[in-house]
Design a protein that fits this description.
Elements (H helix, E strand, L loop, with lengths): L1 E3 L20 H5 L3 H11 L7 H6 L14 H19 L7 E3 L37 H9 L11 E5 L3 E6 L12 H20 L2 E8 L8 E8 L3 H4 L2 H6 L14 H13 L3 E5 L2 H20 L1 H10 E2 L10 E2 L7 H10 L2 H9 L8 H8 L3 E8 L3 H20 L3 E5 L9 H7 L4 H15 L5 E10 L13 H4 L3
Parallel strand pairs: 8-9
Antiparallel strand pairs: 1-2, 3-4, 4-6, 5-6, 7-10, 10-12, 11-12
């Protein structure tokens, strides 16, 4: 990349085309190569960085001492700089701007710069409120159901309503590779059914939930039958249905009080599940390493990487009612720019070729070790109905934790729903053994019994409020008369 900035002609122009904001030269002067990387990422256009250079970036400070360059590229760069100096010295036209010279692909095909790349900025979130003032009870029940959590905010359900019941079923079209056997979708359906029961209760109805597993086109359905009567214990959770949120901010690491941990475990038991609450710092650190290593395999497995990136919603993207808004990831501008680079499959493939990429799990590790606790919901059995019942417990524990003033982030490593060697192979043929090993380590940390299944882990923290709420599809898109 050749970058020209004519301060002699424009004394007041911002440095680096304004891509670094008001960062002063003094700020940059004393930084190490690693410390400069977040700034460099904001200056470079990640879509135009070569595959090898993009793959080298995460390894700087680890397997690389600096950003490597081929001697040929350095020579071409020097010649280009000399030409620019010559033009300035002879007062020939030379504008501020940028162009890319790729010796391998673009030599002799220089083009005018398309314009300065825009930095990734964190915009103010648009307000998105879910109305709880719907006139009809069924509409209120559906409105609560769609507020349930789901992996990647995929909302993997179909919701049908009559005047007597609401049916929440798995939508096979919204599954993913990590949703092994639709088990993650079943967890989401169970949470949605639990929310529906709460909304019915606050409107004076008691409920009965029946789970059935009809077949391939409808792997699981939960029928929430409404009857007059009400349920005060459920009704009190109604505000929490709409207050529940995912908070990915770093925690303070403050210790979780034993009585709070026991209270959360009691909530899980009330819903037929077991909750293992991890508060020991050494155990949390070991769990953080397991989840970080699992995230690395997720990046380095092409299918998992593609699906992970497809979940992200960037400013300007459409279909924001599904997926994860990148503004909710609690990343600084430099980290967002790095994520923008790591969206590229060729870059992470190069890291895999080099047997590199340990940095890919760093964000997960750092967030996990900042937690006050790691709460894991376990259910007895392996059927989709068992996972759905576990999903109801997840929703209840999540809301109870927030009632204590705690923040919650769900954490679902790739191995979470794999139960057999075949399923591990389908997750990642190259890293199946590694994922199996990591699952075994995590099972031991949680004391998982042979008759239990993992439902979901929750990172419990004391942290700043979340800045961006998760969006949902509207009631009218998911209900049927």
């Amino acid at each position: 990349m050749v970058d020209v900035e004519r301060f002699d002609l424009e004394p007041t122009r911002p440095a680096f085309h304004g891509l670094l904001g008001d960062v002063a030269a003094d700020t940059m002067a004393g930084l190490s190569t690693v410390e400069k990387l977040p700034y460099l990422l904001q200056v470079f256009d990640p879509d135009r960085v070569s595959t090898r250079m993009g793959g080298s970036l995460p390894e700087v400070g680890r397997t690389l001492s600096g950003w490597p360059q081929l001697i040929g590229d350095v020579t071409v760069g020097a010649a280009t700089v000399l030409e620019a100096i010559r033009r300035i010295g002879l007062d020939e036209p030379l504008a501020s701007g940028r162009t890319q010279i790729d010796v391998g692909d673009l030599l002799g095909e220089l083009a005018e710069p398309a314009g300065a790349a825009q930095p990734v900025t964190v915009e103010e979130p648009a307000t998105s409120a879910v109305s709880t003032g719907l006139g009809e009870v069924i509409d209120a029940v559906v409105a609560a159901a769609i507020r349930a959590p789901s992996g990647g905010n995929s909302q993997p359900w179909q919701i049908e309503a009559t005047t007597e019941n609401v049916t929440v079923s798995i939508d096979p079209a919204r599954t993913s590779t990590m949703d092994v056997g639709f088990r993650g979708s079943a967890v989401a359906v169970g949470a949605a059914a639990f929310n529906a029961r709460i909304a019915a209760a606050v409107n004076g109805f008691s409920t009965e939930v029946t789970y059935t597993e009809p077949g391939t086109q409808r792997p699981l359905e939960a029928v929430v039958q409404l009857r007059p009567g009400g349920d005060h214990d459920l009704a009190r959770w109604h505000p929490a249905v709409f207050d529940r949120e995912t908070n990915r901010n770093h925690g303070t690491g403050a210790t979780l009080a034993p009585e709070i941990a026991e209270s959360l475990a009691r909530v899980a038991r009330q819903h037929g599940a077991r909750l293992h609450v991890m508060v020991d710092r050494d155990e949390i650190t070991r769990t953080a390493r397991v989840f970080a290593d699992a995230d690395q395999t997720r990046y380095l497995t092409p299918t998992l990487h593609e699906e992970m990136i497809s979940e992200l919603r960037w400013p300007g993207d459409e279909d924001k009612d599904f997926g994860i808004d990148v503004r909710s990831l609690a990343l600084g501008p430099g980290d967002l720019a790095a994520l923008n680079l790591l969206r590229r499959g060729d870059v992470v493939a190069k890291l895999d070729d080099w047997d590199a990429g340990t940095v890919l799990g760093d964000d997960t590790f750092n967030r996990m070790v900042s937690s006050s606790g790691v709460a894991t919901v376990l259910t007895t059995g392996t059927t989709l109905s068992d996972f759905a019942r576990g999903g109801a417990a997840v929703a209840a524990v999540w809301m109870a934790a927030q009632e204590f003033g705690l923040t919650v982030q769900p954490v679902s490593p790739p191995f979470l729903y794999a139960l057999t060697d075949t399923e591990f192979g389908e997750l990642s043929s190259k890293y199946a053994d590694e994922l199996l090993r990591l699952q075994g380590t995590f099972n031991a940390l949680t004391g998982k019994r042979s008759d239990e299944s993992m439902v979901l882990s929750l990172r419990i923290s004391m942290a700043a409020p979340a800045s961006v709420p998760s969006r949902r599809s509207t009631v009218f898109e998911v209900t049927a008369g």
